Amino acid sequence: GRKLANLRENPRVALSVEESVDGDAKWTVTLLGTATVVDDPEATREATRRINRKYGVDDEAWRENTLVRIDVGSATHRTYD
Question: How many other β-carbons are positioned within 10 Å of the β-carbon of residue 55?
């Protein structure tokens, strides 16, 4: 799809994760790095299997996946009072 084409063209990425309670942010982690589309079917199957098992999903769920590896260049963390 278009997102994968965009990653291949410009692999710089940012990823943010936030915990909030009742709409109020408690903390945020932001990662900056370089993404690589992994074109290895066995690696993709193994990653999908591990994620599915972690979240209690059948091994065959989400079979149509693309594995993207992010090499993190920097990470920041912020807490909110």
Answer: 8
pTM over 0.85: no
Question: pLDDT for 37-54, tens place per residue?
Answer: 999 999 999 999 999 999
- Domain boundaries, given as residue ranges, for the chain: 2-79
Q: SS3 of 50, please?
A: helix
Q: Which CATH superfamily is domain 2-79 in?
A: Electron Transport, Fmn-binding Protein; Chain A (2.30.110.10)
% of the chain beyond a pLDDT of 90: 79
Locate the DSSP E strands across 1-81. Answer: 12-21, 24-38, 67-79
- 8, 13, 49, 64 from 72: Cα distances, Å: 17, 9, 23, 25
